[in-house]
Amino acid sequence: MRELYPPIEPYNTGTLKVSELHTIYYEECGNPEGKPAVFLHGGPGGGSIPSYRQYFNPEKWRLILFDQRGCGRSQPHAELRENTTWDLVGDIERLRERLGIETWTVFGGSWGSTLALSYAETHPERCAGLILRGIFMLRQKELRWFYQEGASYIFPEAWEDYLKPIPEAERDDLMQAYYKRLTSPNKRVRLKAARAWAIWEGSTSKLFPDPNVKKKFGREGFAEAFARIECHYFVNRGFFKSKEQLLENVDRIRHIPTFIVQGRYDIVCPMQSAWELHKAFPEAEFVVIPDAGHSVSESGILSALVDATDKFSKL
Residue 77 catalytic? Predict the structure, then answer.
């Protein structure tokens, strides 16, 4: 099994004003003369963390990480206005142009895989490769499984905590009920809902649940951006034109070298979606980890991703 590369610090950080309202934070790591790659974090609203830098050989890669609109070190925090999938696709292009990069490898897991597919299908000529993990295509069946009924049968104890902020009379549409609270002018109401939403996802993301997850996912600054932005995207159906848009447009990217890794027991983004993408995109290398859930840090997924970045550094 592979391990992460040693921790590194960015050699460059900066901000990019992408609209009158939003400014995003970005950083460059590794080798300034290396092969360019961009890391698309999850959520939406999750932000970047230092360990993401360690999935890439710092001698081979020029790695760019950035915090998407409204989260991490980007400003304004937890902002929903001017925050759509297509705003983010535009931001990726603005960042590429700012950094003078012609083409790059795009790496994304969970929501990052959604955004990577959206970007690649819009700008295939800019993608030298795709590395995708925990496939999520933001379809209603995926959202209902995790936020309404399905995953609830596997983690009933965590589900009870997820339900607590919502009165029984509103539980027939939990995403809308949460959206009402996450957009409340009352900060206490927002934060209570945000913590419950975020902790639910954190509690279900690993094959062997992490006992520290409530502390990590329940932090005020993280939870509010994470929950508000996720729910905003989900009630708006990803801002896609059709419910199967990413699969319908997959022919645009089938020529791009692509690696897909999926945990067999992923509860957050069940394997059915990865399987459907694999069937529509048979040219991509597809690896199923038999003893993993959703998290990028689970050993089998981590090892496969480090192998993939090593392989792609030589393409």
Answer: no
110 is catalytic: yes
Find the catalytic residue in 74, 113, 203, 266.
Answer: 266
CATH of 12-138+239-312, one of 3.40.50.2300, 3.40.50.300, 3.40.50.1820, 3.40.1160.10: 3.40.50.1820
Q: For residue 214, what pLDDT is reported?
A: 79
Q: Which of 74, 232, 294, 295 is catalytic?
A: 294
Position 210 scores a pLDDT of: 87
Domain ranges of the chain: 12-138+239-312, 141-238
Confidence (pTM): 0.98
pLDDT one-digit tens code per residue, 30-83 = 999 999 999 999 999 999 999 999 999 999 999 999 999 999 999 999 999 999
Cα separation of 290 and 265, whole Å?
7
pLDDT of residue 62: 98
Write the CB contacts of 47 (distance below 8 Å, at least 6 apart in sequence): 41, 67, 68, 71, 72, 73, 222, 225, 226
**Whether 297 is catalytic:** no
What is the structure's pLDDT at 193? 98
Give every residue of the chain whose pLDDT is below 50, as ranges: none
How far is Cα 150 from Cα 176, in angstroms, rounded to an integer? 17
pLDDT in tens, 201-228: 999 999 998 888 878 899 999 999 999 9
Question: Is the link from the previous residue into 44 a cis peptide, with omega within 30 of 0?
Answer: yes
Question: How many residues can be counted in the chain?
Answer: 315
Q: How far is CA 194 from CA 4, 166, 177, 242, in A?
A: 31, 12, 12, 28
Q: Return the CA Rg of the chain.
A: 18
What pLDDT score was predicted for residue 273?
98
Given 48, 74, 110, 113, the catalytic residue: 110
